[in-house]
Specification:
The complex is a heterodimer of chains A (359) and B (286).
Chain A (H helix, E strand, L loop, with lengths): L3 E10 L2 E11 L4 E5 L6 H9 L6 E6 L2 E2 L10 E4 L11 H11 L4 H14 L15 H13 L5 E5 L7 H18 L2 E6 L2 H7 L2 E6 L2 E6 L1 H6 L4 H6 L6 E11 L2 E6 L2 E9 L10 E6 L4 E3 L5 E12 L3 E7 L5 E7 L8 E6 L3 E4 L4 E2 L1
Parallel strand pairs in A: 3-8, 3-9, 6-7, 7-8
Antiparallel strand pairs in A: 1-2, 1-4, 4-5, 9-10, 11-12, 11-14, 12-13, 14-20, 15-19, 16-17, 16-19, 17-18, 20-21
Helix pairs in contact in A: 2-3, 2-4, 3-4
Chain B lengths: L1 H32 L2 E2 L6 E2 L1 H10 L1 H33 L6 H13 L2 H11 L6 H8 L11 H29 L3 H9 L4 H29 L3 H5 L13 H11 L3 H25 L5
Antiparallel strand pairs in B: 1-2
Helix pairs in contact in B: 1-12, 2-12, 3-7, 3-9, 3-11, 4-7, 7-9, 9-12, 11-12
Classes of the chains: A alpha+beta (359), B mainly alpha (286).
Chain lengths: 359, 286
């Protein structure tokens, strides 16, 4: 087990800078998830930790040792690839033991490690099969098994569940969580799926365009996002954003009027700088933070487009008079049959025009 | 649906007719001719005439020996060379890759007569560049055309030059279909590049290697151009005569179509047998 430290890590491909100085501290035994949309640099960052990509600037340390110029095999890491990267011509047993056999590891120790990994992942009965004879979930287990036999200090997962169907993904998510508890090893996991990030991580690193947007515990990111991007990325369905304008201010709060909704005004207390009157702002409201009329700060009457019933909960897809789309979460029993509904904003977040949180 | 099928067959009829007349019928006809004595007029049915001669004909066994010798030596050498060339072509370190790809493939599109003439000049005893090079490094000159062993070597060199690049391009396609992350996984497993080649690249390339080998076996069984043009009709003294050349000599110089047909069927039978044995030896385990 080992801590991983990224200090001002930069990655350039030719003249293009892809990672712009990432600073991340990962504690020993921690499960950290890198999350972000496609092209944000999360996989590149993981591959740099693995040593599969050169580091253009900054430092990566594993277990206190700088790894910039250390060969991938000597970094004490094991990686699980998105496509599993199993050796198709070898059986499961051979896949698990290949690396150890090639490096002359004693046979008894190799057998012991393979047996342990196969027991942990419950794949003992698959040892004689080839990858093409396995289901997607089984292949993923073998890929994880191949990482386990290396007994690494750090596990790296590169979108390991994205090739699986929804049901299997949930199942494997639980398996990986269980594995982390059982092994207690540092794990770094890359995904574009914020649900995976929220459910698996001790801490989440949100990336966008090669920048670290925010690092924090899942619920901290959910409850206290630093900016509009993180607020929108974390949570499903995503946070609603409604344009607003500052119509009043004092030293510790602002009054915001929602655009096109003259009666809908929100008073937001602020500890930091207070924007000028007339400034454009964005009001963020999570779907579950809409209440019944009169329950919150401001009431909005919206037209209902579609209602999705998920059993206990329903999502109302609605539109404000000004044409802004909203998603409202309701108990299934409380969804009205009407084409219009008046909702109240019980809790909201305020962002400036550039998407930075005002608080 | 049936009407659509009928329309489709009407469109196919011209092709099928030509195919039947110029492909299927000659195959059947030559099989029948192989059971006839064709040096007499009129031809007469004599089932053992040609096939019986084949078994005892020293010229046939000489041609068979030469063909198999070329097959056994040249095909493995060429495939090995093609694998090395494909790996080099696939290297990320290689610059001007498209140029090399073209250069490797170019021999196939060069006219057979032109390339044979160039080879004859290059390997000429007195003024050929090869002998000049040999002399330049202090080795004795080789008379490539008058001695059997050098002549056979020359045929193998020429065939290898012509087809190695072609096979390398096919193998390159196979190499490029091996996912990069398999190698990355092996790198993380501390498997050296050399071991990656032998334990990952070669096994994963096996179907393509087998494909190239089958093509080469079929090609070598039919080998004709090089011994005809470079070593002057299988010379010296039949030392490089192949089955293809024997067939030509019997069929089109002696006009002994019956015997030539028997040789042709023997060639086809051997090619099929060797290919089946090879496919069986290199089959995927279940």
């Amino acid at each position: 087990m080992a801590a991983v430290t990224l200090t001002n890590v930069i990655k350039r491909f030719g003249v293009y800078e892809i990672i712009h100085g990432a600073n991340i501290d990962i504690a020993d035994g921690e499960f950290v998830v890198f999350v972000g949309p496609s092209g944000c640099g999360k996989s590149t960052l993981l591959r740099m930790i693995a040593g599969l990509e050169d580091i253009s600037g900054g430092e990566i340390a594993i277990g206190g040792k700088v790894m910039n110029d250390v060969e991938p095999a000597d970094r004490g890491i094991a990686m699980v690839f998105q496509s599993y990267a199993l050796y198709p011509h070898m059986t499961v047993g051979q896949n698990l033991s290949f690396g150890l056999r090639m490096t002359g590891n004693p046979k008894e120790d190799t057998d012991r490690r393979v047996k342990r990994a196969s027991e942990i992942l419950r794949i003992s009965e698959l040892m004689a099969r080839r990858p093409k004879q396995l289901s997607g979930g089984q292949r993923q287990r073998v890929a994880i098994g191949r990482a386990i036999v290396r007994e690494p200090q750090v596990f790296l997962f590169d979108e390991p569940l994205s090739n699986l169907d929804a049901e299997l993904r949930v199942q494997m998510r639980v398996e990986i969580s269980r594995l982390h508890k059982e092994l207690g090893t540092t794990m770094i996991y890359v995904t574009h799926d914020q649900t995976e990030a929220m459910t698996l991580a001790d801490r989440i690193v949100v990336l966008r365009g090669g920048h670290v947007e925010q690092i924090g515990r899942p619920l901290d990111l959910y409850d206290n996002p630093d900016n509009q991007f993180v607020a929108g990325f974390v949570g499903s369905p995503k946070m609603n954003f409604i344009k607003g304008r500052v119509v009043g201010r004092n030293t510790r709060s602002v009054t915001v009027e929602l655009v096109g909704e003259e009666k809908a005004r929100i008073i937001q207390p602020l500890a930091g700088a207070v924007p000028e009157t007339g400034a454009k702002v964005i009001v963020g409201v999570r779907p579950e933070h809409f209440g019944n009329a009169g329950e919150g700060d401001a009431d909005l009457t919206v037209g209902i487009d579609v209602v999705e019933h998920l059993g206990g909960t329903s999502f109302i897809y609605a539109r404000t008079a000004h044409g802004e789309d909203l998603v409202i979460q309701r108990d299934a029993a409380k969804v009205p049959e009407t084409s219009e509904i008046t909702v109240s904003i019980r809790k909201s977040y305020l962002f400036d025009e550039n998407g930075q949180r005002l608080r | 649906m049936r009407y659509q099928n009928a329309t489709a067959y009407r469109f196919l009829t011209p092709y099928l007719l030509i195919f039947a007349i110029f492909w299927v019928w000659p195959i059947i006809s030559s099989f029948m001719i192989s059971f006839q004595a064709t040096r007499t007029v009129p031809w007469r049915f004599a089932p053992t005439f040609n096939w019986g001669r084949l078994i005892g004909d020293p010229a046939f066994f000489n041609a068979l020996k030469n063909t198999l010798l070329i097959l056994v030596i040249q095909v493995p050498v060429m495939i090995s060379l093609a694998i090395v060339m494909a790996v080099l072509l696939n290297s990320p370190l290689l610059k001007a890759r498209a140029l090399y790809r073209f250069a490797f493939f170019a021999p196939v599109v060069v006219g057979e007569v032109a390339y044979s003439a160039v080879f004859r000049l290059m390997f000429n005893l007195d003024f050929g560049i090869i002998n000049k090079l040999l002399a330049g490094v202090g080795l004795v000159k080789i008379d490539w055309f008058s001695n059997v062993t050098p002549a056979m070597a020359l045929i193998m060199i020429a065939v290898t030059w012509r087809w190695a690049g072609y096979n390398a391009i096919i193998l390159l396609a196979g190499l490029q279909s091996i996912p990069e992350d398999v190698y990355e996984a092996a790198t993380l497993d501390r498997v050296s590049k050399v071991k990656q080649f032998f334990y990952i690249t070669l096994p994963l390339l096996k179907p393509v290697i087998v494909f190239c080998a089958v093509l080469s076996i079929i090609g070598t069984m039919q080998l004709f151009t090089e011994p005809f043009l470079i070593t002057e009709r299988g010379g010296p003294g039949g030392g490089t005569e192949t089955l293809g050349l024997l067939l030509y000599r019997q069929g089109f110089r002696s006009l002994n179509f019956g015997y030539a047909s028997a040789v042709a069927y023997t060639m086809a039978g051997l090619a099929i047998t060797i290919t089946l044995v090879q496919l069986w030896l290199t089959r995927e385990p279940k």
